[in-house]
Write a structure and sequence with these properties.
Chorismate synthase, AroC fold; binds the ligand C=C(O[C@@H]1CC(C(=O)O)=C[C@@H](OP(=O)(O)O)[C@H]1O)C(=O)O; globular; binds flavin mononucleotide
């Protein structure tokens, strides 16, 4: 089973990750993983830092001649901020004791919507800085790197993941059917083709006219000193039927996927397939008629895929469709009210450099975090410690 841990602060020297449980004999390169790191840095609405950070993963264990050995894979990512602002961060975030600690400014104005206030209450800090450093979505860069290895495992089996934006602020698709028309076409040759097409849009939206409206919406709220979130969809192609299980609550694949998405900063909801829309329709306009289909392993297809490729906590063999909603960025130029944790006096919030809308970037994070869940569902079915053992078993599942 694949599991991973990340470590590192947003303005510390580097982020570190360890991935355990990758089978032996899997091809992994820094370039293949860094592709998604670069994608995560792109998107209209991003803040200043994403223009100059250069996220390139560096492996330090678990690989030999570009292949896994079954041992833990360790990796790191440098924070350019540490070197770029060398007079500040190596002092403010010094790992060892410093003589003049009192000269380092304390952050005492918590931002509503961020982890600031509850973080200082929980860990008994009189300074918000340590909370900012670890709750920051800077951590998602290492998550994308760690999960990137699981993505390569999936790709070796023909399983591809791609994401696209559905809604930003007031602008989005009119209906489930409209989404399907455009997204199913883009994913016809696989999830990667879908993300490549979505990446052509500044906001990762497959619809050119909506792209323009979403960009204008972000411009508008940036000018107004506010921020935006939105809704995205992740499409996974190439999964056989029968991954996951209905027999026990913690083996249901939809539950595991939802947890992966909800564990990501700023995510406030998940739906599988048409999700909430299913509650507004009668059964005949929700359930997917079963058809004979020789192109699908097992020989059964579906007329539609409103269930999003999962029934009874198991894959159906149709593409897995997951939607996620991201709240607007908490750090805003136009201040909201707060209370100073030192003086206990009401005050306006303080502004730090920030994304205005990070949804297009977050799509890459969502694509990534589901990869270990899916990889584990496959490994549970096939077993095996090496790619040479797993590949034929996967191909012979049906
Ligand atoms: C890719 C990405 C980028 C983000 N960028 C920012 C940012 O620049 N400023 C900010 O205040 N919050 C940003 N956030 C959101 C915060 O990290 C998040 O709201 C915070 O960690 C609190 O967690 P919660 O929203 O899950 O409660 C970003 C989130 C993601 C996924
Ligand atoms: C650094 C990243 O995102 C950061 C996420 C983030 C937050 O509060 O979550 C706040 C900002 O940090 P900074 O003030 O250092 O610019 C973002 O830039 C990243 O995605 O790599």
């Amino acid at each position: 089973m694949i599991r991973y841990l990340t470590a590192g602060e947003s303005h510390g020297p580097e982020l570190t990750g360890i991935v355990e449980g990758l089978p032996a004999g899997l091809d992994i390169s820094a370039e293949a993983v860094s592709l998604h790191l670069a994608r995560r840095q792109q998107g209209y609405g991003r803040g200043g830092r994403m223009a100059w950070e250069k996220d390139l993963v560096r492996f330090s264990s678990g690989l030999r001649f570009g292949k896994t050995m079954g041992s833990p894979v360790t990796m790191s990512l440098a924070n350019r901020a540490w070197e770029k602002d060398a007079a500040n961060w190596p002092v403010t975030m010094s790992l060892s004791a410093i003589e003049d600690e009192a000269s380092v400014e304390k952050i005492t104005l918590p931002r509503p919507g961020h982890a600031d206030l509850v973080g200082v209450q929980k860990y008994a800090f009189d300074d918000i800085r340590p909370v900012i450093e670890r709750s920051s979505a800077r951590e998602t860069s290492m998550r994308v790197a760690c999960c990137g290895t699981a993505r390569l495992f999936l790709k070796a089996l023909g399983v591809e993941i791609g994401g696209h934006v559905l809604q930003i602020g007031a602008h989005g698709y009119e209906s489930w059917e409209e989404i399907r028309e455009i997204a199913d076409e883009a994913a016809q040759s696989g999830g990667e083709a879908l993300f490549q097409k979505a990446d052509e849009s500044e906001v990762r939206c497959l619809h050119p006219e909506l792209t323009a409206r979403m960009v204008d919406e972000i411009k508008h709220y940036r000018k107004a000193g506010s921020s935006l979130g939105g809704i995205y969809e992740i499409v996974v192609t190439g999964l056989p039927p029968g991954l996951g299980s209905y027999v026990q609550w913690d083996r249901k694949l939809d539950g595991q996927l939802a947890q992966a998405i909800m564990s990501t900063q700023a995510m406030k909801g998940v739906q599988i397939g048409m999700g909430f829309e299913a509650g507004k329709r009668d059964g005949r306009r929700v359930h997917d008629a079963i058809t004979k289909d020789q192109n699908i392993p097992g020989g059964f297809g579906r007329k539609t895929n409103r269930a999003g490729g999962i029934e009874g906590g198991m894959t159906t063999g149709q593409p897995v469709l997951i939607q996620g909603v991201m709240k607007p960025i908490p750090t805003m130029l136009d201040p909201l009210g707060t209370v100073d944790i030192a003086t206990k006096e009401p005050a306006p919030t303080r502004y730090e450099r920030s994304d205005v809308c990070a949804l297009p970037r977050a799509v890459v994070v969502a694509e990534s975090v589901i990869a270990p869940v899916l990889a584990n569902a496959i490994l549970e079915k096939t077993g095996g410690d090496s790619m040479s053992e797993i590949l034929p078993r996967f191909q012979n599942l049906f």
